[in-house]
Design a protein that fits this description.
- It comes from Vanrija pseudolonga.
- It contains 9 helices and 7 strands.
- It is of the alpha/beta class and 287 residues long.
- The chain has one domain: 3-Layer(aba) Sandwich (Rossmann fold).
- It has a 7-stranded mixed sheet.
- Strand 1, helix 4 and strand 2 form a beta-alpha-beta unit.
- The longest helix is centred in the middle third of the chain and has 15 residues.
- It is globular and about 55 Å long.
- The two termini are 23 Å apart.
- The model has no long low-confidence stretch (mean pLDDT 89).
């Protein structure tokens, strides 16, 4: 497990360059969404990461039909009179995918960007640049501080959330426990569910594997609390998207401490599937 660092956005020997993504605001003509200056000031939070391209595609209306995504993106369900979407992104940084999504949602919907307090100014600058560029009517977007593993009460007050976005967050092993603990806190039920296998907001997770031997430990613990459904049909090379929801819990369930969150906990009605997800991981392991 990698050792913690004083500032997770500035790990030792940081050496990263802007990533240009065709068809987005992160292009070479715009200096990679201002990434060069942002990386110097905010470290890894200032870069646009590889899984962003897949997430942007999934968060585009009509893309599900064109790419034959399965499951399709629920954010664009056209049910008349649907309740407003309230979307939260963890570790937003540049927030390129979330702001892309905001351009396609109505003003009744809200997106909350979150990151470490020191990174919130980057989120706010991204919102300002996007708003000036976008114009017209679109979802409301705000930024709030949220350090993984710490109290999420201020952010939860903006809920309840219908969706949670994660883009390339499964990276440093020492951050797996606080990330998982925050996900559990954000998806805690107000009362014990009595029907269905799953409950709570839908998590849309975009991820690129960099060290599967380490990352499998996160997904093994994550799968004890959440159902993972791989999104098929994207044709991505190394990136993957999962749609996830919490497994139902019983009266025995208690939100675990940071120290114990990676271990199995009582009170979870585990329905973990050893089908598509495991086939996917087996495929990745041999690539």
């Amino acid at each position: 497990m990698s050792a913690p660092h004083a500032d997770p956005n500035f790990p030792p020997n940081l050496n990263i360059a802007p990533l240009h993504l065709a068809g987005t605001a992160a292009t070479s003509e715009s200096d990679g969404h201002g990434q060069a200056a942002a990386i110097a000031r905010y470290g890894i939070a200032g870069r646009v990461w590889e899984a962003t391209a897949a997430l942007v595609q999934y968060l585009t209306p009509g893309a599900s039909a064109a790419a034959r995504f399965e499951p399709t993106c629920s954010l664009f369900d056209s049910a008349a009179g649907r309740p407003p979407h309230r979307v939260l992104e963890l570790g937003s940084g540049q927030a390129l995918a979330s702001l892309h999504l905001a351009s396609h949602l109505p003003p009744t919907d809200t997106i909350v960007l979150t990151d470490l307090p020191a990174v919130v100014p980057l989120c706010e600058a991204s919102i300002a640049a996007w708003s000036a560029r976008e114009g017209g009517e679109h979802a409301q977007v705000v930024a709030r501080p949220l350090a993984w593993g710490e109290d999420a009460g201020e952010v939860l007050a903006l809920g309840p959330f219908t969706h949670i976005l994660m883009c390339d967050l499964v990276y440093f092993p020492h951050l797996y426990p606080p990330l998982l603990r925050t996900l559990l806190e954000l998806t805690e039920p107000e009362s014990i569910p009595t029907e269905g296998d799953t409950f709570g907001p839908e998590i849309i997770m975009a991820w690129k594997s960099r060290s599967l031997a380490l990352e499998e430990s996160f997904f093994d613990s994550f799968g004890r609390y959440f159902e993972l459904t791989p999104v098929l049909g994207g044709g991505w090379d190394e990136e993957r998207i999962f749609v996830c929801r919490r497994w139902r819990v019983t009266d025995e369930w208690r939100l675990p401490s940071l120290k114990h969150v990676m271990a199995p906990q009582p009170g979870v009605v585990v329905q973990r599937s050893f089908g598509l997800v495991d086939d996917l991981f087996a495929h990745l392991e041999w690539e």
